[in-house]
# Entry
Amino acid sequence: MESPLYVARPILPDLSQLNELLEDVWSTRIVTNEGPLHNRLEEELKAYLGVPVAKLFASGTTALICAIRSLGLTEGAEIITTPLTFAATAHAIAFCGYKPVFADVCEQSLTLDPAAVETAISDRTEAVIGVHVYGTLCDVTGLQDVCRRRNLRLIFDAAHAFGSQKDGTSVGMVGDISVFSLHATKLFHTLEGGLITTGNPQLAESIRLIRNFGIASEEQVDMVGINGKMSELHAAIGLLNLPLVEAEIAARAKLRQTYDSMIAGRPGLRSQLTQPGVKLSEQYYPLIIDPEEFGRTRDDIYEEFKAHGIYARRYFWPVCSDFAPYQSEKVHSVQAIPVVDKIKDRVLCLPFHSGVKVNHIENISNIMSK
Ligand code: T4K
# Structure
C-alpha cells in the first residue's frame, strides 16, 4: 500500500543545517523574546516580500487577533468578512469582541465581493477583512474603494498568499494590514507561525507592542497585549526554509499546469481564476466541481480519492456562517450569500506540493476520468 498523499506537505530543511544554526542559540541561551534569529528572519522577510515592516508571530491566528486589536475599533463594532475561509478569520473577529458580518463572494474569484460588502455596511461597521482564499487575490481595488468611500479599515487575511504580487506590488502592501500564516501547511512556514506586514508606521508600532503584552519598556506598559511572540527555534526553521521556497513554487506551478491540462475541456470542472498581472503564491489548487455537468459530486470524488489513499480537502466546508458559535444573531449577522451557498459543496483542494509524483497524478486522473 502506497503512503498516503495529503493536500499539503511541509518543506523541511536538512537536520544538520538546523543543528548548526541552533548551536549559537544553545550557547547564548537566548531562545525567545525577539532574539537574533527572529530579528534576522524579520529582515529577510522584509527583503523577500518587498515590505517596510514584517512582524513575526506565534501563529497566523494570533497575528490576526493582534492586527484587529491594533485598529482600536469601537466596542461592538461590526467587521465584514467572507464565510468562505478558515475558522480563524471569523474567530479572530469574535475573539476581539467584535461582530463578524458575513457577505457573499464573487462567483469567479471566490473572494469577498465589494458590492456585497457595500450592501452589508451598517452604522456599526468599522472594518473589512478580505481573504485571498486559496491564493486567489481579492478584488483589492474594489475593496479599497469601498473602504475609502465609507471610512472603513481594511485588513487582508493573506494566509494563502505568501509572496503573491499584483503588477509587481507585494500583496503585503495593500490595505491597512496584511496577515500571513506560517503554519506547516503553508508554502513558506516556521512549523507554527504568523506574520504581519503593513505600510503604516503607527499601526506597526501598536502591533509590536500588542505582540509583547503591550510592554514599551521595563517600567512601562502602554496597552493591553498578549504573548504572540515567535521563538528562536521556529525562526531558525524559517531562515532555513526561505531559500527553499522558490524551488517549491516552481514545482507547484508545474503541477498546476498538469492539473489544468487534466481538467481542460471537461464539462463541470474548473479551477482557480487566472488573474492578469498576478504572481500566484501557489498555495492551493481548488478544483470546482459542478455535479450536474460533471455527473458526480465533489463528495463522490473526495470519497473515491480517500479509498485510494489520496486525502484531498473540502476547504472551506462547512463555511464559517454554518459554525455553532455563529448561529445566533447576537453574535453575527449574515447577508444573503447565494454564491457561497452554491460553491461550498463544490470545492475540493487537490494535493498540491512537490511530493506529488507522476504515479499520484495518474491515480488522480484515472479517478477523475471514470
Ligand atoms: N486564515 C486562513 C485563511 C487560514 O487558512 C488559516 C489557517 C489561518 C487564517 C490561521 O493561521 P494559523 O493560526 O493556522 O497559522 C490547516 C492548518 O492548520 C491551518 O493553518 C490552515 N489555515 C488550514 C487551511 O489548514 P487543517 O485542520 O486542515 O490541518 P491538518 O492537520 O488536517 O493538515 C492538512 C494536511 O496537511 C494533513 O492531512 C497532512 C498535512 N500535514 C499537516 C501537518 C499539520 C503534514 O504533512 N504535516 C503537518 O505537520 O488546518
Observations:
- The pocket of T4K is lined by residues 6-10, 59-61, 85-86, 88-89, 131, 157, 159-160, 181, 183-185, 194, 311, 313, 315 (CB under 6 Å).
- The chain has a mean pLDDT of 96.
